[in-house]
Amino acid sequence: MTAVLYDLSLRMGYSYDVPASGARHIMRLMPLSLTNRQRLVAGSITISPTPDEQSHFVDFFQHPATAFMLRAPHEALDIRMQARVQVESQPIAADFSPLLADLPEEIAGIWSLAPDSPHHFLGESPRLTQTRDIADYARSCAKPDLTAMQIAHALCTRINKDFTYDPDATTVDTTPLEAFKLKRGVCQDFTHVMILALRSLGIPAGYVSGFLRTIPPPGKERLEGADAMHAWVRIWCGETIGWIELDPTNDISAGTDHIVVAYGRDYSDVVPVIGVLKSYGGQRAVQAVDVIPLK
């Protein structure tokens, strides 16, 4: 097993037409430490202006989060994260996942309601409502003789082939059905469509937020989505295999190029920065990410 060490830097900035006040925000930006997956060596987050109040907590899905408040009027908000993370390569596992018809029995045998229980990732969630169009699309990939893992890989490849990566086609509020009809979008759209497709078949699936390596290996093209935070899909493939991660934007399994920040049911569970403030007029947001492998 090999490991890759990365230095990460992220800047998220917001500027307001009219100074904002009474701002309350929650951040989920720091990469996780995950057994046999990745290790957070060190990390820090700075906020400007300096918050008047700040607290830390762990959410239901066991992600460290920071809540902060800015009382005074401010024309801009600047958040910067720096971290060093070690990501381990994952062994290639044989496919011992059940056939789709046998998966419900294995799910029923899971009595746990812990954050990683498959039961949390089967039904609808805040941003994901089942639609017939996406369910029909999923069934076209679900041949009776395929295992849950094979179906997941088939859907990943199909979405990558049928959809065009287009950062101008959608926004953060675009619904999965809208993106599905456009057959265009970004990693969030690819991920939401794939999650809905898998859930419509009874395969537990969730959302992964993180970073994607920006410097490609020698001789390989740069991966799409590397200029901002990235998203991909987590799939439960039975008791023996457990969870796997697939990236439909690039049609690959998540590996040492993928750095996990948060797991959730959909984007609403892992929003990097969310909050409310008092202001009017428009606002502009900028995001810059660097993922630098250390030699």
From TrEMBL:
InterPro entries: Bac_transglu_N, Papain-like_cys_pep_sf, Transglutaminase-like. Residues 179-250 form the Transglutaminase-like domain. SMART domains: TGc. SUPFAM superfamilies: Cysteine proteinases. This is Transglutaminase family protein. It comes from Rhizobium sophoriradicis.
